[in-house]
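stage 2 :: seqdesign
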């Protein structure tokens, strides 16, 4: 090769590298699908046996293999080297040998952030075996995380993500479906959906500045355009929810107002119960359309304030509000009253009613917490990995949370950033959809559409 050819070859290589760099920078998605993913997939398949073995997922099996053995053609192997009668040759033989057999890896399917793949379980393996080695697999594949996202008898589906999809969350909370909001993204790149008709009550816990109010903003923004009534309990003196008053059918900001508003809610539930009984319906969704009452979503901020008492005088109020909130939680699901209860911690130290209330809040959202007990309290008897994930949430990522539904599955998720101004604008824009409180509490079916009037209990 002469000097000019070498220069041309080097120039071509440099141009190729620059082109690749520019492609990756300006069109990362197409670069991922066309170049990075095929390269990664090849590497995953080529190294799978070693990786599975290193992660303890492979099994030892006996297999027939050709082997290359040293065989003495004449004399004995034990004779000394000087003994020329011992002649050793290499001979191919078919023998049964022990080999490491990795679980079968099906087709890797690319996703915008990584890939999904089904793995056939070896006999005796369960999906949990793969959950436990997620971190090892992530290191072996040089990716951000590997999680088990689905399982069927004999198979698990793994999701590998190249980078944390929760670094920047850009998604609209409005879904257009009744009682459903999309407050953020899950770590697997899917939208995080809260569907109150599936999981009616939610506990939203986290330390101060962990993102609880932002999530409440996202929920308000998502629900504001829907024909639902929103009710606020703001025991921070009203500073959190007062800006959203135009879209709230009622707002209580003091202990006294809370007791009155909770009594009203219990009455609403009782009336709806009677309505359903009269029409032989098990829940409001089985009533004829024209009788179906407006669903109510109740947001409670800083729930501990409802349960704390400074002196004996407050004891009765606390006990009344705790009982009423518990009744709403117990009966609300069937009668269209749903709860989102926010607080820094919601432990038994606040009183006996709290534990009962917590057990009714089947949807759990655990933002960053200051102590491991709060994570335990919020996530209950979840998988220990969920607790570890909750404890590992960094202060620099407000809005990140571990969420768990009633089916026991859990996800890392992050809410989309919704500023107070945005939520306030949505509340003003859809103020005309707020049913008046008097209309909601009147016996009989309520219909939306009145101007909102925050309650002064
Ligand atoms: N998903 C998010 N993305 C980006 N920033 C966020 C997110 N959630 C919250 N933040 C930011 O984190 C800060 C704290 O959030 P937020 O007020 O919601 O916390 P909090 O838990 O309600 O705190 P406190 O209990 O003190 O009211 C705010 O400045 C907010 O802008």
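stage 2 :: out
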């Amino acid at each position: 090769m002469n000097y000019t050819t070498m220069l041309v070859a080097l120039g071509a290589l440099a141009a190729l590298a620059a082109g690749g760099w520019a492609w990756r920078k300006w069109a990362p998605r197409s670069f991922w699908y066309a170049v990075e993913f095929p390269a990664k997939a090849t590497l995953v398949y080529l190294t799978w046996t070693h990786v599975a073995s290193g992660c303890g997922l492979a099994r030892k099996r006996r297999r027939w293999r050709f082997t290359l053995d040293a065989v003495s053609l004449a004399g004995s192997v034990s004779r000394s080297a000087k003994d020329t009668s011992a002649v050793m040759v290499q001979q191919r033989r078919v023998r049964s040998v022990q080999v490491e057999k990795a679980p079968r890896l099906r087709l890797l399917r690319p996703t915008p952030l990584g890939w999904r793949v089904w793995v056939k379980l070896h006999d005796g393996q369960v999906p949990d075996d793969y959950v436990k080695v997620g971190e090892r697999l992530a290191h072996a594949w040089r990716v951000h995380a590997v999680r088990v996202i689905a399982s069927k008898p004999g198979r698990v589906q793994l999701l590998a993500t190249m980078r944390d999809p929760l670094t920047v969350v850009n998604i609209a909370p409005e879904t257009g479906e009744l009682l459903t909001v999309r407050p953020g993204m899950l770590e697997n790149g899917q939208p995080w959906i809260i569907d109150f008709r599936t999981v009616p009550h939610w506990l939203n816990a986290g330390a101060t500045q962990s993102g609880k109010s932002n999530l409440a903003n996202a929920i308000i923004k998502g629900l504001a355009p829907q024909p639902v009534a929103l009710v606020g309990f703001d025991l921070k003196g009203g500073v959190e929810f007062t800006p959203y008053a135009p879209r709230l059918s009622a707002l209580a900001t003091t202990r006294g107002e809370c007791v009155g508003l909770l009594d009203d809610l219990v009455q609403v539930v009782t009336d709806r119960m009677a309505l359903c009984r009269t029409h032989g319906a098990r829940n409001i969704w089985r009533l004829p359309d024209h009788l179906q009452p407006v669903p109510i979503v109740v947001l409670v901020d800083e729930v501990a304030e409802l349960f704390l008492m400074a002196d004996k005088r407050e004891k009765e109020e606390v006990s009344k509000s705790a009982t009423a909130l518990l009744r709403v939680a117990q009966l609300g699901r069937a009668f269209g009253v749903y709860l989102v209860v926010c607080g820094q911690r919601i432990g038994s130290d606040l009183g006996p009613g709290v534990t009962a209330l917590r057990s009714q809040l089947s949807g759990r959202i655990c933002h960053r917490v200051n102590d491991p007990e709060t994570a335990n309290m919020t996530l209950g008897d979840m998988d220990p990995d969920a607790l570890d994930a909750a404890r590992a949430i960094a202060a620099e990522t407000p809005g990140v949370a571990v969420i768990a539904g009633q089916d026991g599955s859990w996800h890392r998720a992050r809410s989309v950033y919704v500023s107070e101004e945005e939520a306030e604008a949505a509340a003003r824009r859809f103020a005309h959809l707020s049913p008046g409180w008097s209309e909601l509490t009147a016996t009989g079916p309520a219909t939306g559409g009145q101007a909102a009037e925050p309650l002064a209990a």
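stage 3 :: structure notes
- The longest helix spans residues 28-54.
- The longest strand covers residues 59-74.
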